[in-house]
Amino acid sequence: MPPRLLRAVGWSSAALLGVLGVAVFLLVLTPAKDAALPMRNKYGLVFDAGSTHTSLYTYRWRADKENGTGIVSQVDACTVSEQQRDTPTYLGATAGMRLLREQNSTKAEQVLAEVAKAIGEYPVEFRGARILTGREEGSFGWITVNYLLETLVKFSFAEKWEHPQDTEVLGALDLGGASTQITFQPGVPVEDRNTSVFFRLYGTNYSLYSHSYLCYGQTQALKMLLAALHQVLQPHPSSCSAIPHAMKHVPQKCCACLWLKC
């Protein structure tokens, strides 16, 4: 994967909870031309389309950058009225739509087309709706966590942004509704291009390993469990030996409870 220089990054302040199982994060790349706009503060809108719900976030960043990367904050207020039509707006869908695309690619394309049509009618600069790859979702979550923990850049006592010294970046685990992502800096080259990600952030290069496990999110795991239990708990089983092969999807504690009932 060629180097990618982040121009501006959007994320939710709730992303710190990503390692504890909060859903997904969305990162937006804003073209460099936006930095040339005359107003000092820029705004962006991000629709984070997860597997269970869609959230809308508003972000603000200064036109000038720190070593080629924007310093971004989430804001609760609406964008400045005179900038509204020039406000870049994106929609990023995650594992729920990736799953739908595998099951019915035509339906997934129709959903994105309808969403793009609806958002495009609002007075903003809509730049498209797309499905994020699992690698993107994981690596963007990694950036979110490390940005908020100030391991990528930090405002120093000298009142300037600096790369933290003697600070290690952290790995990120993201348990979503329809998938789980793991992303970290391995310290050795990643040979598999499907799991390799490169970023240059605030003047520092980062080579990451990122992998997504589709169908292993919280909602999908619960569905697999309920499906397995439904097969197991059919009325009048002949014996415990009738427990079907589907039990391999049931957690060990659940298996133990069912065996005790037999």
Low-confidence residue ranges: 1-38, 238-262
Give the number of domains. 2
Report the principal-axis shape.
globular
Q: What is the terminal-to-terminal distance?
A: 54 Å
Strand content: 25-35%
Number of helices: 5
Helix percentage range: 10-25%
**Major sheet: size, sense and barrel closure?**
5 strands, mixed
Helix and strand string, N-terminal first?
EEEEHHEHEEEEEEHH
Q: Could you tell me the radius of gyration in angstroms?
A: 22 Å
Structural class of the secondary structure composition?
A: alpha+beta
Give a structural overview.
- The protein has helices spanning 95-103, 105-119, 134-148, 218-232, 252-261, and strands at residues 41-49, 54-62, 72-75, 88-93, 125-131, 154-155, 161-162, 172-175, 179-184, 196-201, 204-214.
- The chain has five helices and eleven strands, in the order ββββααβαββββββαα.
- The longest helix is centred in the middle third of the chain and has 15 residues, at 105-119.
- The protein folds into two domains: 13-214, no CATH class; 218-261, no CATH class.
- Residues 1-38 and 238-262 have low confidence and may be disordered.
- It has a five-stranded mixed β-sheet with strand order 3-2-1-4-5. A four-stranded antiparallel β-sheet has the order 8-9-11-10, with helices on one face.
- It has 262 residues and is an alpha+beta fold.
- It is a multi-pass membrane protein.
Briefly characterize the structure.
It catalyses: a ribonucleoside 5'-triphosphate + 2 H2O = a ribonucleoside 5'-phosphate + 2 phosphate + 2 H(+). This protein is an alpha+beta fold and 262 residues long.
